[in-house]
Amino acid sequence: MICFMFPGQPLTFETTVPDDPDFRQATALTLDRTGLDLADSALLGEGLTEHVRLQVYGVAMSLYRCRRLRREGTVPAIIAEHSMGIYPAMAACGALDDGDALELTCRIGACIAAMGTRRSYALGCVTGLTAAPLMAVAENNGVFLANYNTSRHFLLSGERRNVEDAVAEALNNGAFTARSFPCDAPLHSPLMEEVAGELREVIGDYRFREPVLPLMSHIDQDYLSAADLPEFLVRELSLPVYWERTFQALSDAGVSRFVEVGVGDSLKKYNRWIASEGGR
């Protein structure tokens, strides 16, 4: 069984772009629905941050690569998503059109980014510590565990100074690596509830179809229905991403081939780590 995995926001834009009819179609659709030109990563319009640009870019490239894979004969039986990967995942399983997925990504990103005009936020990437000691570090510094990617790979989320302090403490406590990077909002933390009402207003403009392929939630590993999706899009920003559990649930469901559909190979790396520990 093949699973298409859709990763979250990339950290950077790729230095080269494809040159084929599918990419040109994706470029035209993205430009029309969001203002982002995939050919040069230039965003037309005002008020959208670098992080929103990366979010839209990541979704657009996932949609493009999904189309290419299917054209080449690689067909998924199940869909998985990590963080912002939910937007192309919804398109891949038929719950939204590609254009709506792009537009919704852009609008959600702009709503989230408004938080960054009021406070400074950051994410912290920590490897080497297990969850329990890192949770203690997070609590000591008033931040949150945002991503449980593997047994020893996590993201922290919160106000920037607090995240920086937590990263320093994690290193002092034996983390292999730990670094922070600024972001627009404290993603996957309870602090996101500040904009929940605005998010619901944006999401209310869209209609979701029943997925034609199983779409697994990264929160509780249940399968999402059309009725679930509007509230899931709000809740998932306030709750952690549990990728290790998701990979294990997919394996238990019979997935034998995982295909990462997007920019980079972070999910493949997480999967190898998890599989090496669990013997899968």
TrEMBL record:
One Gene Ontology cellular component annotation held by this UniProt entry? cytosol
Reaction(s) catalyzed by this protein?
holo-[ACP] + malonyl-CoA = malonyl-[ACP] + CoA
Q: Does the keyword Kinase apply?
A: no
Q: Has UniProt tagged this entry with the keyword Chaperone?
A: no
SUPFAM superfamilies the record matches:
FabD/lysophospholipase-like, Probable ACP-binding domain of malonyl-CoA ACP transacylase
One example of the protein's molecular function in GO is: [acyl-carrier-protein] S-malonyltransferase activity
Q: List each copy of the Malonyl-CoA:ACP transacylase (MAT) domain by range.
A: 5-273
Task: Give one GO biological process term.
Answer: fatty acid biosynthetic process
Q: Name one Pfam family in it.
A: Acyl_transf_1
| SMART domains per record | PKS_AT
EC number(s) for this protein?
2.3.1.39
Any idea what this protein is called?
A: [acyl-carrier-protein] S-malonyltransferase
- Per the UniProt record, the source organism is Geobacter metallireducens (strain ATCC 53774 / DSM 7210 / GS-15)
Species lineage, top-down?
Bacteria, Pseudomonadati, Thermodesulfobacteriota, Desulfuromonadia, Geobacterales
